[in-house]
């Protein structure tokens, strides 16, 4: 029998819950689900790259041969053979990464949350690039830090700009490879300078690397964690090289920190799905990624070039943009007086979508910027959408 309640509950949300905000990109994606929309908005991998048959075979094999283990609870830190595979893949001739330094997580977004939980107190200073990954800003914001913005230029983060804003900082968050949202990458010289600067300042450096394998030239840059494994927290993910639906990522960190992250994960979800980890290990253990990733690079490289060619043809000369050599994104800077938020409304009415750049800034947003993603749109639709967007920008000049 249903009980009639004359006094409806007045929910008392915590201060943390009251400050939670929906991802602007996720809200845009709701609009862009309509098939007539040419969407350059989502940072989604192309489904054409998902190794469906290989994953199916791995699930069948794991469930047939070790089903009772795969369907049981697992250790918080992760499935041992997969951790060992990751540690070996991160090790270099001069740097040995131990499996004990690896913590498996439910997508790298969980890694950001755990790092925030372990390293950030209310009011702590957190340094981020200008602009930075929106998902990281969201994850860290829950812990109410004070953000400090590190300067960037056409070549990415400027290491010499760190020290003036570093006093009291708990960490510096960076994406050195084909950054989301700009597509920029750090040179080897800047990587070394960044690692050396953070080491000298005693500043923990987060190296978030979901796109590093997606170099169109096929030669990934050296990882900063190999330059200073005691001071760099490396984040990796299988989302961009296998499939995002499995929600599997990992953290490589110094042992004192990885233990704290493990304790925080215990309180969050006990462990990442054992079945998923065993399946991914079955897929990658024999070198499959070495054969699979080149097909992703080729597809994305061709679509990136199609977009760059279309932008050269249709965008007014007053507009500038990045020319990435890998990854999934192009960053556009419009004349100062054009508000990308207002431009988005016009673009959606014309059946084109993108992500305005302002949400990617922790401080002092630049409203005349926007992000384009090309990986889920075929070349002919890219050309059509860019032509429409170019006309709208020209009309706003």
Outline the fold blueprint.
Blueprint: H1 15-19, H2 24-31, E1 38-39, H3 52-70, H4 80-90, E2 102-105, H5 108-119, E3 125-129, H6 134-141, E4 146-150, E5 152-153, E6 156-157, E7 169-174, H7 188-201, E8 205-208, E9 232-237, E10 249-252, H8 255-269, H9 274-284, H10 288-314, E11 320-321, E12 329-333, H11 340-349, E13 352-353, E14 355-356, E15 369-373, H12 379-396
Parallel strand pairs: 1-13, 3-4, 3-7, 7-8, 8-9
Antiparallel strand pairs: 2-10, 5-6, 9-10, 11-12, 12-15, 14-15
Helix pairs in contact: 3-9, 5-6, 5-8, 10-12
Describe the structure.
The chain has 397 residues and is of the alpha/beta class. It has two domains: 15-51 and 290-396, Aspartate Aminotransferase, domain 1 (Alpha-Beta Complex); 73-287, 3-Layer(aba) Sandwich (Aspartate Aminotransferase, domain 2), CATH 3.40.640.10. Helices cover 40% and strands 14% of the residues. The strands form four sheets. A seven-stranded mixed sheet has the order 2-10-9-8-7-3-4, sandwiched between helices. The chain has a four-stranded antiparallel sheet with strand order 11-12-15-14. Strands 1-13 form a two-stranded parallel ribbon. Strand 7 (169-174), helix 7 (188-201) and strand 8 form a beta-alpha-beta unit. Helix 5 (108-119) packs parallel to helix 6 (134-141) and helix 10 runs parallel beside helix 12 (379-396). The radius of gyration is 22 Å and the shape is globular. The mean pLDDT is 94.
């Amino acid at each position: 029998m249903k009980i009639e309640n004359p006094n409806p509950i007045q929910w008392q949300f915590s201060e943390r819950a009251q400050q939670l905000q929906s991802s602007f990109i996720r809200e845009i994606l709701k609009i862009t689900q309509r098939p007539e929309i040419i969407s350059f908005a989502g940072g989604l991998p192309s489904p054409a790259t998902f190794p469906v048959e290989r994953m199916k075979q791995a699930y069948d094999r794991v469930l047939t041969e070790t089903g009772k283990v795969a369907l049981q609870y697992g250790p918080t830190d992760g499935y041992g053979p997969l951790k060992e595979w990751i540690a070996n893949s991160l090790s270099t001739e001069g740097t040995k990464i131990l499996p004990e330094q690896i913590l498996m997580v439910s997508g790298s977004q969980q890694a950001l949350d755990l790092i925030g939980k372990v390293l950030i107190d209310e009011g702590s200073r957190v340094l981020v690039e200008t602009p930075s990954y929106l998902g990281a800003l969201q994850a860290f914001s829950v812990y109410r830090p004070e953000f400090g913005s590190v300067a960037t230029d056409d070549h990415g983060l400027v290491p010499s700009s760190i020290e003036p804003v570093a006093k009291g900082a708990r960490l510096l968050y960076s994406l050195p490879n084909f950054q989301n949202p700009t597509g920029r990458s750090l040179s080897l010289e800047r990587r070394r300078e960044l690692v050396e600067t953070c080491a000298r300042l005693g500043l923990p450096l987060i190296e978030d690397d979901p796109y590093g394998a997606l170099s169109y030239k096929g030669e990934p840059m050296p990882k900063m964690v190999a330059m200073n494994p005691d001071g760099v927290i490396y984040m990796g993910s299988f989302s961009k090289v296998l499939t995002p639906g499995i929600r599997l990522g990992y953290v490589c960190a110094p042992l004192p920190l990885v233990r704290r992250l493990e304790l925080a994960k215990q309180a969050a979800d006990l462990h990442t799905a054992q079945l998923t980890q065993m399946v991914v290990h079955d897929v990658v253990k024999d070198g499959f990624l070495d054969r699979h990733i080149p097909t992703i690079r080729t597809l994305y490289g061709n679509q990136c070039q199609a977009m760059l060619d279309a932008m050269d043809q249709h965008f007014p000369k007053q507009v500038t943009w990045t020319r990435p050599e890998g990854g999934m994104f192009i960053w556009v800077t419009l004349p100062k007086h054009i508000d990308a938020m207002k431009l988005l409304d016009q673009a959606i009415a014309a059946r084109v979508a993108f992500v305005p750049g302002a949400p990617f800034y922790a401080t002092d947003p630049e409203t005349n910027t926007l992000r384009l993603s090309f990986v889920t749109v075929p070349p002919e639709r890219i050309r059509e959408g860019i032509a429409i967007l170019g006309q709208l920008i020209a009309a706003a000049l």
